[in-house]
Amino acid sequence: MITVSQQAHEARERGQLSFFDGTADVSVGLSSFLSPPSEIPEIPRKTLLNWEKELTGVYLSGHPLDKLTKSRLRDTIPCSEIDPSLEGEKVVVAGMVTGIRTITTRKGDLMAFVRLEDLQGSVEVVVFPRAYEETRDLWQRDNIVVVAGRIDVRDGKANLICETCEGWAQETAIPPLESARSPMRARREHRIHITLRRTDDYEHDVKLLSQVYELLERNPGQDSFFIYVRNRRGWVQMEFPNAKTHYTPAVDAQLRRLLGNNCVRVE
Asked: What's the domain range around 14?
């Protein structure tokens, strides 16, 4: 339609009014765009999604990782849950390769730094030479893979050290951690104890309590939290049995900014 309109304007500027001067003629011109041949084969969904991403910058009709949420992969954790508190833990993640950078070590071996993304977030996967040699064909952009490895922390940032990797399929089993020295452990559950000191400004105290609760609620997970408020008789403990949060260093830092360093204790 844009092409036909442009041609019409150009024709008018050249004085060729008779060529595009009627609606019927324009309709004829549009017919080749609006009536594609009926024998075009169906476009694969992956190709359509790639076209959407290329054209608009986002996926519109779905996401390549939607099928992961419907799969039967067990014992995997979202990329968003990988943080420094899990240092040394063995975990399994599943996601799409969105970036890869290879380097050559001093010994002349290749290794890679891979950006792995799922629907909740992303994580950098470090693939050392031995693992890279065994899995290099899998590290292609837009490939969906299942990676098992160990959490490593450098400069306060958590990365995943790849130990095994497999291409994803509906029936994919969790890749074994053959090099692991200990069985995979579940993420530790935290208990967050928060102290709220009363002031003479009742509205301020209520607002602060709401900010704390909303912060914890915005980060759902499996961690328990308790809020302690002082009144004239002493301390009152507020429990939230039906609400859980996900403790991370970022959440911890935000709580301490709101309340002060001595008002947050984590078990």
From this structure: 2-34
Regarding whether 153 and 82 lie in a shared domain, the answer is yes
Answer whether 266's CB lies under 8 Å from 192's CB. yes
Residues 6 or more apart from 220 whose CB is under 8 A from it?
Answer: 244, 245, 246
Q: Is 73 exposed, middle or buried (0-12, 13-18, 19+ CB in 10 A)?
A: middle
Question: What are the distances in angstroms from CA 74 to CA 94, 171, 239?
Answer: 10, 11, 31
Residue written as tokens 């992303």? 122
Q: Over the stretch 141-200, which tens digit does the pLDDT of each residue have?
A: 888 888 989 999 988 899 999 998 888 764 444 444 443 333 344 456 888 998 888 787
The verdict on 98 and 21 lying in the same domain is: no
| 3-state SS class at 175 | coil
Q: Output the six-digit token pair for 130.
A: 């031995």
pTM of whole model > 0.70?
no
Q: How many domains does the chain have?
A: 4
